[in-house]
Design brief:
With 375 residues, the chain is mainly alpha-helical. The protein is built from 14 helices and 3 strands.
Length: 375
């Protein structure tokens, strides 16, 4: 299968690279939250099962590559050679390839579900800080319900593609076609709906950001951060195209195993990129030190202009940004945070969920915490 990019070596590389990068991204996410003394929330914890499932997918790919079931042409079918022979082949490699695909499908559904939920809960932590329910609040809540339903429906559906006899999923292809008749419809629907939901989820914050009181340039910068999710959308689109165009009758072709390898290859890429991209917005305190301005501090400042006046007990080292005068305008547009001691100031994104267990203040409050790094 040297004519394809999805060789055994390539399969092993992505199976090692993406889990490694995902582990680093998740570890840094938790590290930055701990350094900022912020409470871990739902969006943070959801990355853990997503990472575990990513390792499971990587293990399946490495197993397939090591046993010559992925990344290479399968042995010629016996006894009937030619394209139709694959429908009746019982070679160890082909059966193993079908086993890998079966487990890969439902594990991938749950991994994608956790990633989608993580970014949605992150949106709610950043944007849904007001006491009143906003349209964005309602949309994200509905999307969370939709993602949970989608994950359970396609996850359970993938497990029971062949009813209560899952072993039929790796029987000869002719038997699979007879006993697991809804397989292609379920998997094709899964791929298409996954792509559509990715587009919806990664574009949801754009209208919200555009309404913030920022310069156009700053709005574009913030939108660009969230649109890094285009990387996962692209891999999702590639996987969807393989399902629609080729997988209808993959083994009717002499290189059906190549198409299955493509499918698993892009599923792994989508999962790996998804976990990294989901963690990137939370790592601002790391890569933000390299930039002259804080994108997310800008979001918080803009949201503060829209918050309601309320009294609260402010913690030492934190400044309220939601104080409004009678005209409804912010009394202070920029808050420069300094400690009495000498040192440099590090700003973190702090939402109502971050401080609700540490301090008493209304949900409408938006705070920016500064921590001094001594030299």
């Amino acid at each position: 299968m040297s004519r394809t990019y999805a060789t055994s070596a390539a399969v092993v590389v992505i199976s090692i690279l993406f889990p490694l990068l995902g582990t680093i991204a998740v570890a840094l996410r938790f590290y930055t939250r701990k350094q900022a003394k912020l409470t871990l929330w739902i969006d943070d914890w959801l990355t853990i099962p997503a990472l575990i499932l990513e390792y499971a997918l990587a293990g399946l790919l490495i197993w397939g590559a090591a046993t010559r079931s992925l990344g290479q042409l399968l042995p010629a079918p016996d006894p009937a050679p030619g394209p139709q022979g694959y429908l009746f082949s019982t070679s160890d490699q082909q059966i193993r390839l079908q086993q890998i695909q079966y487990f890969f499908d439902f594990i991938g559904v749950f991994a994608f579900g956790f990633l989608k939920l993580s970014i949605l809960f992150f949106y709610r932590k950043v944007f849904c800080t007001g006491a009143r329910k906003s349209i964005f609040d309602t949309i994200t809540a509905c999307m969370i319900i939709l993602v949970i339903a989608w994950t359970l429906a396609f996850g359970i559906g993938s497990i029971f593609l062949c009813g209560v006899h899952p072993q039929l999923a790796w029987a000869p292809v002719a038997i699979v076609a007879e006993k697991c008749s809804p397989q292609l419809l379920v998997l094709e629907g899964y791929a298409i709906s996954d792509f559509i939901m990715d587009v919806m989820i990664w574009t949801i914050p754009i209208p919200k950001i555009w309404m913030l009181q920022m310069s156009v340039r700053h709005k574009v910068e913030v939108i660009a951060v969230f649109l890094v999710g285009i990387l996962t959308i692209a891999s999702s689109a590639a996987r969807m195209a393989i399902y629609i165009i080729y997988i209808v009758n993959a083994f009717a072709q002499s290189d059906g195993e190549t198409l299955i390898t493509y499918l698993l290859f892009w599923t792994m890429i989508e999962c790996g990129l998804g976990l990294i991209v989901v963690c990137l917005p939370t790592l601002r305190s790391i890569y933000g030190k390299l930039s002259p301005r804080s994108i997310f501090s800008g979001i918080r400042s803009a949201l503060a202009h829209q918050s309601l006046r309320s009294s609260s007990r402010i913690s030492p080292g934190a400044t309220r940004l939601d104080s409004l005068d009678k005209s409804g305008k912010s009394e202070t547009l920029v808050a420069n945070l300094y400690n009495k001691d000498e040192g440099t100031t590090q700003t973190y994104i702090v939402g109502a969920h971050d401080l609700e267990q540490q301090y008493t203040f209304p949900r409408a409050a938006i705070q920016v915490r500064s921590e001094v790094e001594q030299h």
